[in-house]
Amino acid sequence: MRRTLTAIAALLVFAAAGPALAQSSDLETRFDAQISPAEMSAWMKDLASQPNHVGSAHDKANAEALLAKYRSWGWDARIETFSVLYPTPITVGLELISPTPFKATLTEAPIPGDESSSRTADQLPAYVAFQGDGDVTAPLVYVNYGMPADYDALERMGVSVKGKIVIARYGAGWRGLKPKLAQDHGAVGTIIYSDPRDDGYSTDDVYPKGAARPAGGFQRGSVAQMPLYPGDPLTPGVGATEKAKRLKRENAPSLLKIPVLPISYGDAQHFLAALDGNVVPSAWRGGLPITYHVGGAAKAHIVVKSDWSQKPIYNVVATMKGSTWPDQWVLRGNHHDGWVFGASDPLSGNVAMLAEAKAIGGLVAQGWKPKRTLVYLSWDAEEPLLLGSTEWVETHADELKAKGLIYINSDSNGRGFLDVGGSHAFEHLVTQVADDVTDPQTGVSVAKRLRAALQVGASQTGASETLKAQAKVAADPAKDLPIDALGSGSDYSAFLQHVGLASLNIGYGGEGSSGGVYHSAYDTWEHHSRFVDPGFAYAGALAKTGGRLVLRLADADLPLQRYSNFADTVATYLDQVKKLADAKRETADTQAKLIAAGAYRLADDPKETRGDPTPLKAVPHFNFAPLEDAVDHLKRSAKAYDAALAAKGAALSPDAKARLSKLTQGIEQTLTPEVGLPGRPWYKNLVYAPGTFTGYGAKTLPGVREAIEEERWADADQYSALTAQALNDYATELDKALKLINGG
Known about the structure:
Number of strands: 18
Helix content: 25-40%
Distance between the termini: 47 Å
Oligomer: single chain
Radius of gyration: 26 Å
Mean pLDDT: 93
Largest sheet: 7 strands, mixed
C-alpha cells in the first residue's frame, strides 16, 4: 500500500548520521552469502504472474507457495485464515451524459512488451474498495484534490457540491478522504483520476518507454475510513474469526455511502473538458491540454454494485523457536496481496523478506539457533484495509503484549536511499545496521550515502530550514540517524498504534520509480525489473538490512534501545504542537481583522463571485505545563539510563541482563492507554498515529494535536494531561531499569 518516496522525500526522513561501528560478524557474513538477487527476481516473477487480489485464485495459491517455501527452509509454518468483509465489483460504469456523451473505459489495455499486463481475465476493473453502491446521474464539479482547503475555496466561489458528482485528482492527501469530504458536503458520487502533472507524462516518459503512468492507467485502492480504524469494518477491535460478533454493514462507521470510481487521465480529459463555470485557480490546474473549469452544468452517470460477502484471507505465519528466551518474539512482516499483479507493491518487499527467511534457515542448518523466537509473517489483504495484519494482531493481542519485543515491517521497495520509520528508541540500532550495509550503486555504506545526500540537498537554492537543520546534524558522524514517525498505510499499524509494540518500517526508494504504475495493472515484474530495481540489487540491500536487524535483536544479551533519542524527539514534537497553537491563534486573529476591514472584498476580482471566508474560531491558550514537565522527566530518565547501560551493562550478571531485557521489552505499551484518541479510540498510541486528513502520514502527539486542529479546546487540555501521564509512566519504567543496572 505504501508508495516508494521520491528522492527528496526520502532524504527528509533523516536528519543525522551515526558512527560506523563493528564490521559484519561471521554470522552476518554467512547470512549475506546466501542472498541472491536472481533468486528474488524469479520469486517475484512467479508470485506476480497472475492477479492476486483478495478472493482471487492466485492469492490463495501464493499463500500456499509461500507456506511451502518456509517449511522447506526449516521454519514451523502454517496458514492462519480469517473471514472478512470484502466487496468485489459486480457492475461498474461511468459516462458523461451531457453536453457530449462519452463512456469511460474502466479496464486497462495490455502494454506491448509487458507479457504480464496481457493476463486480463481475472483483473479487477476500475474500482475502489468499501465505497457505497449506487446508481446516480448528477451535475459534475471539479474539486481539485478534494481536500479541506479546496472546499473552502469552492465556498468562496459560491459553488456547492450538494447533489452533484465531484471529480478530484489523486494527490495532496489520502485517497479515502476525497469521497468522505465529498459525502460530508452533500455530493452523491465521486470520481478520482490521476493527473499527468502528478504521475504521468509531466514527470517522465510513460510506460513502456518510461516509468510514468500511461494515459489508460488508473489507480485502484481502498476508501474505507482508515483514520477511524483499519481491519475488517464489521469487527473493530476483535479478530475476524468465523464466530466473531459483527456489526451490520449499514452501521459500520468506516464504510462510505456514495459510489466512487477511479479513472485514467485519458478518460478524465473528456469529463474535465466538458465543464464550464469559473476557470479554476492556478494551483488547481493539472497537466492535461485543456482549460480547467469548476463546472456545474455538465452531467455524469456513475454506477457501482458490489458483492458484499465475507471472503477468506490467508496469513502465512512462520516461526523459528528461540533457544534461550522463547517467550520473547522478534516479528518480521510484509504483505503478499496486490491490487492486480503487485510486483513493486508489495512483492518487492516480500521477496526480500523471503531471502532473509531462507538465509536464516540456512544458518540454523549450519548449527546456529536464535536466542529469541523469530516470527515471519506474510500478510494477506493489506491493500483493502490492512485486514490480515489487523485481524491477526487483534486476535493475538494479549500474547503479543506479553511476548512481543518488536515488529519490523516492509512493503514496497525500490532503488535509492534507506527509508526507516518507527519507534525512536531504536535509532541507534538502525544507525549501526545502516553503517554495516553497503549501498549497491556507490559501494559506501547506506548511512554514508544518506549523510552526503542530505548535505548536498541542503546546499541547494530554496532548501527548507528543516533540511538545513537535518544536514547540520548529518555532518556529525557521532550522532545516530533519526527515523521518521509512522502514520499508517502498512501492516505496522496495529502493532504500534493499537497494542503498543515497538515497530520499524524499512525500505529503499527515491530513485527507482513505481509511482506511475501504483495500484494499476502495469505494476508488473516487467516494469519493476526495468524501472524500479534493475537487477534486484536493492532487494538484496533490503534483505541484508532486515536480516541484520532481526539477527541482532534475536541474540542481544542487553537491550538495543537507546532512549535519549526518543526523549529528544518527543521534545521536538511538543515544540511543534505549541507552535501549531500559536500559528492557529495568529491566523484566526488576522482573518478576523481582514474580514472586519472588508479586505477580502477589496482584494477579490469584482468580476468573479467571491465572499468572505467562514470566520475561524478564536483560539485560547492551552495548558501545556503537564506535558513540559513530563518531557523533562523523560529526558532526565533516558539520559541517565543510557549512560548507565553504556558504563555498566556489559558487566551485569546473566540474570540481571535477562531481567533488564524483559523490563524494557514492554515499555512502549505505556504509550497506549485504553482510552485511545478522541473520536477514534482504536488508535491508542499517544505519540504516533495516522492523520485524520493525510490517512497515511504521521501525526505526532495526536491527541493534543488533533484537538487543536479540530477546535476541540477542552480535549486539548485533557489529552495534554493524558499524554503527560503516559510519558511519565515511560520515564518511570526507565527509572526502574536504571535502578536494576545500578544493582537495585
